[in-house]
Fold each of these.
Amino acid sequence: MSERADLSSKIERAAQLLLIQRHRRPGVKGWELRRSLGRRYLDIIKILDEELAKFGLKVKVVFMEEVSEPRAEDYDRALFMVTFRYPAKITDVLTAGWSIDELGALAACISIINSRGGSVRMRDLEDLLAEKLPRWRVELLLERFVRLGYLDVKDDHLSIGWRSKAEIDVDLLSLRLISYGSSG
Amino acid sequence: MSFKVKREYVERIISTCERVLRRGVDPFTIEVERYIKYLKDFLSQSSSTEDLILDLEALEALSRIVEFQGRWIRDKSFKLYFDPLIIEAKVKSLSLSDLAHVLCQALRPIASVKMISRVGFEEAAKYWLNLPPLKDRWGRLPHQIPATESMSIEDLIREKLALRGSFSEMVEEFWRRVKDSSKDGKIYYWDFIKSNSFEESVLKAYMLSYLVSYGYVGLDYDPKADDYVIIPYEEKIQVLGSNSIAVSISYDEWLRRVKDVGKS
């Protein structure tokens, strides 16, 4: 097989690995990609990312812990997945099964957690949301956010979950929140 | 301190710097000035090429820390925009719909395709191929036992399979109880369904939901008490449209609300 054909087949394989959900949670670990695509899997992923840009998609890498200068082993442990390249239209998100209330509550949770250094007492967040929603609904919503991976819960504290890291530009959310309504 | 120990200390400086750089944690935990003084002292005593290289590596790691400290300050100053109090005030002032619109400006959903795995498909195919025709399966059902036993209505009531009196009588009776209870003033949902047993509370909640659905009583949410106020109507009213209020009564919630176990 020529080098070009080999590269092309590896890009196809990478697209299949990333787009087809094999486990309960979407995405593929770096080491799984390395096993399937070889040592230079990050180069393949970079080319795939350029190809996906044509369809408004991108490859998102979620590191398991905060890293400023990721190394090869950080990539191996990271989760690779395909996400929208640009923010989704609210109508599309609503069609996917979300309600306005749920999205609003998620926005509140993520921005509050982010502003308080990444972790908030569950009770504090419940009290805040209970100003806008019945308490029984707040409890159900938080449970759902944790189940879907948008939030993590540990020792009665909530933090930002893997799915939020993948799907939400947290700093942009806070910036948009602060500037919302001030321009007009 | 022996020179060997000093060398190990320099190695430790390098590994600490690398760890901080890799994990992106607060670079100001590294005492750069103290380490540089130490390296100066180390350099004056070192003679081998290996030591010089080690000193150089440590100095390079420390210079990267200084560079990271600059970046850290820049990032932190940017984070000042996200003052927790401002964010909280904004969250409180905006409606859920506004918050939803804000979220969508920063939301890039995951795109994935769900499909059955090969193992799952093989299992399904095997199950389907081994599944006997419907008529064979029906044939395997046990024959109906011809013997019958009779039960009295009292037995059925005791087994909770039948009601004493008609359901409409039960509704009327319950409606009267609600009206009587509310004569003394405002009555809250949880106060009303309070009973000695969980079963009794569930029955009351069930009957109440029936009365609400068919216009015998109304519910009004009181945010201060985080509970619903029961408003019994004198006459049954025509219910227009439909509004659902879900009130969950789990056993734990019942214990907490009714028995006040959670407060003790």
Amino acid sequence: MTESLDTYKSQRLKEENPSNSIRAMNFKSLIYKWAVFFAMILSLLSGFGIFTEALAESATPSLEETLPDLLTKSFKEKTLVAERIAESADPRSVKLLEAMLNGKLGYIKENKTMVYMNKVDKGLSLTDALTDQSKGTLKKNEVKKVATNNKLRKTLRGLIARAQLANTDSTVRKQSVLRMLETADGVAITALKNQLETEPKKEIQELIQVAIDLNKVRSEPHQSLHEIQNLSSRLEPEVRNALAAIASNETLKASDPDVVDASVKSLKIIDGKVSFYKKLETGFFGLSLGSVLVLAAIGLAITFGVMGVINMAHGELIMIGSYTTYTLQQLMPSQIGLALVLSIPAAFIVSALFGMLIERGVIRHLYGRPLETLLATFGVSLVLQQLVRTVYSPLNRSVESPSWLSGTLEINSVLSLTLNRLYIIAFCLVVFAALYFLINRSNIGLHVRAISQNRQMARAMGIRASRVDMLTFGLGSGIAGIAGVALSQLTNVGPNLGQGYIIDSFLVVVFGGVGNLWGTLVSGFSLGIASKFLEPWSGAVLAKIAVLVFIILFIQKYPSGLFPQRGRAAEG
Amino acid sequence: MNLKNLISASAMIATLNAPNVLAADTIKVGVLHSLSGTMAISETTLKDTMLMLIDDQNAKGGLLGKQLEPVVVDPASDWPLFAEKARELIEVEKVAATFCCWTSVSRKSVLPVFEELNGLLFYPVQYEGEESSKNVFYTGAAPNQQAVPAVDYLMDELEVTRWVLAGTDYVYPRTTNKILEAYLKSKGVADDDILINYTPFGHSDWQSIVSEIKQFGSAGKKTAVVSTINGDANVPFYKELGNQGISAEDIPVVAFSVGEEELSGIDTKPLVGHLAAWNYFMSVESDENDAFITSWKEYIGDEKRVTNDPMEAHVIGFKMWVKAVEKAGTTDTDAVIAAMVGIEVPNLTGGTAKMLANHHLTKPVLIGEIQEDGQFEVVFSTDSEVPGDAWSDYLDGSKDVVSDWTGEMTAGVPCGNYNKVTSVCSGQNYQ
Amino acid sequence: MLKLLKNDLGGRVFLTILVLTTVFVPVANLLLPPDNPLYVSSYTVTLIGKYLCYAILALSLDLVWGYLGIMSLGHGAFFALGGYAMGMYLMRQIGDRGVYGNAELPDFMVFLNWDSLPWFWSGFDQLWFALLMVVLIPGLLAFVFGLLAFRSRVTGVYFSIITQALTYALMLAFFRNEMGFGGNNGLTDFKDILGFNIQAAETRVALFTASAVVLAAAYLACRSIVSSRLGVLSMAVRDAESRVRFLGYNVTNVKLAVFVFSAMLAGVAGALYVPQVGIINPSEFSPLKSIELVIWVAVGGRGTLYGAILGALAVSYSKTWLTGAFPEVWLFALGALFILVTIYLPKGVSGSIETLRKRR
């Protein structure tokens, strides 16, 4: 009993001593922030004409007076100037702020005139920021950019966004509301309420309602039981943070226990949903890791699985695919997206050619001696790595992602799927389907299978074994090249690219069962998902080790993998 | 492959079982940087930098009336091979000084060799500190010249209150993060507001970790990532940040291992606005820097090649060595070591680098934001040079330890790790 | 002993050279003045010492690959484990001479705030215990791993791939700083071995001599194994495993015995290697190192024992030489060597010599 009393006392002490209590400190700073933002938004909204009546005639300085202050070096002062520009109620201000945000605002060093800068061939073409008159073209070193930093840009973005609540573009409006969720109150809330009446999109209507509810919850928590219950359906982090603040508010617990209980309940609902979506997300991560593994391994499933060649240069064939992508992008710098699409067939061809060269030059001499193909192809991999170092440079090369590959598919504020990963999963499935069709349905596939099952008999039937060998190896290598195109979007393109995937690829093929394409697919995806579900509680390294140990034990128990080959071929 | 290499090759065969009979009237300078293997990416540039510096010096008439002769060997990113090659350079090639290494483990591997054979080593990369050897001059940054000022900037200018310390699992990130954790706590940051995460070398699948960072950063406080992620793992990390929609304005990342050279291999679009802390940026405007960049581009024959911080460290280290040899009038190791302390040379950012008694340098600290062209725009710099501190004040094990190879602060015994409390010198000059 | 080497010309030649080197090098290093043309520098002593350790390692692989027909791509793991056991002993010998002056804990532990020595480090302050572990740990790992693998008849390529996975997993594990083995930096900055300064010329020569003696002993041991019943059986397993099994022999036990012995030998090689190169770190576990090791044996020629030694020495020396002389192209040369040897000298150098001799 005494013990619990002491704990209680010490807790109380902590609460009362602000320097010891983070919570109390935050509360204080929150109030301070509210005050600041209230003032800011008040002036802001008035400046942009959303609120014309109340404050239109305030004595804000004109843009002409304010602008020269931007010449200061201090970012803090610049922030203040930017806010003053926003306040100035001048129609030019949004354009100014946007130019500043994008690094296009500068001044001529000689006479300190503020100008908009546009890159042209031999320097910068300039227009006066105030008068919009052309100032001709100057060299780069005669003009200086108005430097911004991270924080200033965030402020600028906020200032611009808040002016866009009534924008015609619904995504801009949504962004604008989202930026106001955390801080909106007072005048901003009135503006939001006005927008709510005219807002056509349901999604944004709901979001505005959240902002209004949140404001109520923050400003009058003891009267916001209803809002707190309503908010339980939302997943925005701002909602969660506001509810968490109430749930742990000691004074409120004493005065309005039902409000606190309600927020605890709402929090529980939200947390339940969040953890559900997090699991979905982990599943997605697993699929995406799996698709990378499958892509890297599927070429090997052909060369190793079907032909029995231990191709240690497989990773380097992947690397060649990536370098092909890089080269194509260098050749068509203005069309990186098109270059990426074109590099899929190009990488296939280049890697396949390299593969066939390796087959003709090295592997042909080593059939029936699988372990020795390992040694020779290891030599090949060293040569290819050094070749790339000599031709390109030992440095990593930069492969750009086209804009349609970046970004996310947002399901809700907790779960958003990255587009490039989605594309790669789809790409992996397409490649798999094509390969599966080729091996199981086409004439050449028939030959490949025949050779792998009984070489002598196949040759007796008139199949040109050595040509089929070459083509098969070329096919496997070409697929590796295609994997390289996909990997160039995810990771480094450099001489060591291949080494990172070779061991994993072999394990995927062996785990899935040699000579079985389905096995490779299933094993790649299951290993990907397993390691992603292990990762959160064991860390990335232990997860990988655990997966490796599992595979070792699995193969020791079932040497032919998940999908063992049946029949006579299994003995070969 | 030229004749010179062939000759030195055959000379080497001759020397494997016989002492060096070709004692020519040149001064040999060892260049021990990986030209193959995983570290070739970073180290090849440093080899080229050294060759350029040596060429320049020879054009100016050499040193002590002799020409300098570079001895380049390839330790192939293989740590025991580093030790073997170091021994070869000192014992067989009899080099006067060696410019070596990138990773901490390669330095740790050659260190006993240099101490045993009394060689002279210049190490050009920012590192974790906690070391001071008589035979080594650390021309890269100690943690107090990079990590701590960067955190100060985030705290003061960007008002960051929640911290992710993400690093590759090896000694440099481990130490840096330990120092930073102690430092942040001393500034009143709560345990809950610090997230520490380690990943293996070359980690390429960052989905889960970036998602975790995103969640950690959505708690309503300004969050920043302090990244000690090494080399190759950076590209997929930044790409994943960009893809998951985390912009530099939401959660800025300040990196200690990402420089111009690394950026030249990255699509920089998703990185714009993220930060890096170094002691040199290519974009700094100064006469020394302009001259250096011009001669570098000319030497390498590529207008697009960039310069970076460890290159500047080699420039400073080499100039200091030249000055010290001239001062000592000999390349004898002990004489040069004695002459080194106190030497000042201009750095490339318009200031002065001074060699301190703990074998570390004074360096300015610069913080830059990544631009779309792969360069940095300086957003913060210290008013004056910061002296490098070998032993961190924020770690329990080392806060009482000082290093002074002149013996002034260490009771007359030149010592790399002298405990002020117990008055004991352990490590190299252990009695 | 002579009887053992009766039909082994290569072995006799090799052992003769080894004995001569072992006598000459210490004398030339310790007794001759440095300006004597026959003087051997400490650099060379250590370098040859290192090669000799590689030779022991190659020997251990040849035993399983050349005579048992199983290609282990994880033999580097046993080597590294032996090395770590020795490294731990050497770390404990540093005592309070580390940079932090902590008598109990190695520097990296002080650095990572460990309060006390983890249990698995206890005992390693005694050389006999460390030496015991040098053979026991690799042996035990090989036993468990081999038992599981051989019982379910994992052979050929599959065995190679899971041994590769084994060494890869160990590498990742040892890279972790939490493991308590120094993470990426590994164990380094050794001072003493048995009270002798590890950097002294005499100690180097002693370590060199020890390596040479162990190599000779290992060679004789391997030779006697392959000439014994066990050796004959293992060659039979290599050539026709099913038939041996049908004849009623326990193939698993034969394989296990040879594999475990080989792993122990690799561990001993690692233990001799570490004090001479002065560092052990997880990169020794890297699959690439194990592949390189296989290449040595392939180049030298497997199934002859002395061929493996020849391969280890030749490839390591050319690596030393090429990395110094032609740093930019040595990978081309090494790669080309592997390709050419596999295609044109399938039995390696020694195998080709044997073939030539038989033809005469």
Amino acid sequence: DTKKDGALAAADTRPLTSLGIPATTSATQDAMHARLGALGYRVGQGLAERFSAQSPRPQTPLDVIKFLCKDLWLAAFRKQIDNLKTNHRGIFVLTDNRFPPLSKMSIDRRAGSKARDEGLARAQLYLFFPSGVIRGALSGLGIEATVTAESTELPSATFQIKTKGAKA
Amino acid sequence: MATKAARIGEEVWKSRVDKINAEVVTLTYGTIVAQLCRDLTVPNTINKTDYNAVNKELDRMGYNMGLRLIEDFLAKTGTGQCSNFRETAEMISKVGFKVFINITPNVSNWSKDSDSFHLVFEENPLADFVELPDDGRAQDELWYSNILCGVIRGAMEMVQMQIEARFVSDVLRGDDTTEMRVTLIRIIEDEMPPDDE
């Protein structure tokens, strides 16, 4: 059928990366991102279990998020989250001004906005795993949430946590 | 020699290495191995893990790490060429392992011609709190920490040594010790490109 043929043709004309390997399709990329998130989720669950064992269980969602920003972040990244914002209706925004996994990355500033976008896109790959860690840790402490992450300027990273039933 | 390597390892570990929580590493590595065990199955089965394939994949991942890690190793430690394979063994154990995962496996069981030795792991951060799957096969087939073999192989290849590294025992399997056999295959000579005048 034509739809299938169209998809195949698209796959054949995929642009090549600098290494000569065809660039991944968006479908493979989505699967890869989901996979990275799932790996992080399991790690987050384990970390939350391990590092909350000695302390009383956080009672409110805000307490859980604070535990995440302080204790868990310290354990995983040797620093705390720099800024926490919330709308008090289930949405939390965590900003790490110097997120360790991104701290050694750089962008060629002379090459303009294209280089900047490419650099940020490369950095984005490194945010799926930590997003999964957050999601897993929250789940271990009884909060269902979706987490999205982005970096608009290296080496900072912003994680947006939207708990189940949150109102924007 | 052994004490000199130990001194370098200790010094670099203390002053020049960014550290990360060991449990984060343990958990992350465990998650990766578990995922591989789910992904790599015997053809035409749904959930029968092909442990041989998992071992190979871990080794391959390690190899790619080793190829890059040696650069960092040389930069951090400032060490030069080893004069013989015994010295190399000390460097791997007391500097390499020390600097990157803060352990120093014992070097022992040298072969008569000094081209092969055992690394004996008294501790192994990768395998803390780990239990192998209870499917009656993992105990005999999976080399849980196989990534380490690849790392050594990759790193050594970048300094002109082709080696073979493989685990021969693992406490996770119920053995008394965790030991890896490292064998020097050949020194890789610089080869001129063909027809290069």
Amino acid sequence: MSSTKLILQSSPHLRDDDSVRRIMLTVLIALAPATVASVLMFGTRAVVVLVLAVLGCLAFEAIALKIMKKPLMPYLTDGSAVVTGILLAMNLPSGLPWWMVLVGALVAVVLGKQVYGGIGSNPFNPALVARVFLFISFPTAMTTWPVPGSDLFGMGADVATAATPLGVLKTDGLAALMSSDSNLYMNLLTGHVGGCLGETSAIALILGGLFLLLRKVISWEIPVTFIGTVFAFTGVFYLVDSSTYADPLFQILSGGVMLGAIFMATDMVTTPVTRKGMLLFGFGCGLITGVIRLLGSYPEGVSFSILIMNGFTPLIDRYITPAPFEDKGGELQAP
Amino acid sequence: MSKLAELTKGLWKENPVFRLLLGMCPTLAVTTEVVSGIGMGLSATFVLVMANLVVSSMRNVIPAKTRLPIFIVIIATFVTIVDLVMNAYAHDVHKSLGIFIPLIVVNCVILGRAEAFASKRPVFDSILDGLGMGLGFTLGLVALATVREILGNGTWFGMPVTGEGYTPFLLFVLPPGAFISLGFLLAGMNSIENRRKAHG
């Protein structure tokens, strides 16, 4: 008898050297331009929010792991808490009271992630869960936007505040928006507008998105269909009545569309795994965002749209499954 | 099971809110403040005791095939009494509970006890069961309402408890806050229960 053993192993059989840590590091690098842009626009307040959110996420992750009697390593150092922290900060206004940032970190890590069993098991994007929790709990504080570029080194509570372009559009109408800023589109691109830390510079966010695409951490389907659907949906309204509805270019550059489409709706854990599923996911996000913005009572709907589609993800993955050894041009291929 | 155990099982071991997870609709809906929680809990307790009493004493004459509609008619009778009495003597609570008072008719704690307990057991046991379950239900509602009223409004029984500088978490008086609070209370109860079991 030969002593050679037949080794049986379950899938996956194809592996590469990707690890959670490596992916998280790539995401952090991709977030760097937008983070720098937010600090340039909002100064020390942005730094405070960023630092508190990241440290808060790390601390609450450690406490949650301790309470659930799980090992601290490798969960604490895999970088996921840091990414959640930065994404959370990106979703908050820079003038938010410090303790609300910590509450957000607690909600993101505990309610958004650890109650479901930790990384990889959460159905909803943790940073968005925290953002919506804060938004519904503290509507005033979460919609008080410091003016970018003003009082860069200030720490106190008194800073000039202004509405976001989407807020102006919702409450005062299109004419007020257009007359409020003569250089609106340039400012939207560079980030010189009011909003959350990460709702500012479209250029910085797109740069990060291109880097993620290049490193194959995300694929094009969700961002493109998300942004495309917002563009198309708002475009139809603009064509019908251009005196009430803002043009589609403004719609995709303002608010959280870029941040959401590139960094939040592409989260591997909470979005579909198949290409068709991703197309559907992106379309749904774009449609819900458009509906909330144009027909709803809130000025912005990106975070709600992504959370709602997160809820649909298991259903999408259940019904859109790739056929194994799909017939491609008469030749059998591995999926 | 001793008579005392029939009474006390509803408080913790078979608590309708935290252990049996029955009657979730009023549990989640009326616990925005402690006062309405108590109002709902005591109304349900009265209906439970009376429905258990009547169902148990009629258990030998109710035909098995039509028992559910008969239970519902019995329960609805007592709910109507609660509805009218409350409207007359506790009008404010009645107004704040609104539709949830008539809805006690379909509260599954009450139908559940009629079906699972009162229709099979002697009258006195059924009264004790109804009383224990009702008080357990009230306890559950008060616990949940305490968390939600303090966090979401900064008050307890309408009295301010958190001091001037507190910014209430609006979310906790809204429906998502009910689910989140209930989830954490359940987790806490389960954790205590597991520890008790582990230590014998």
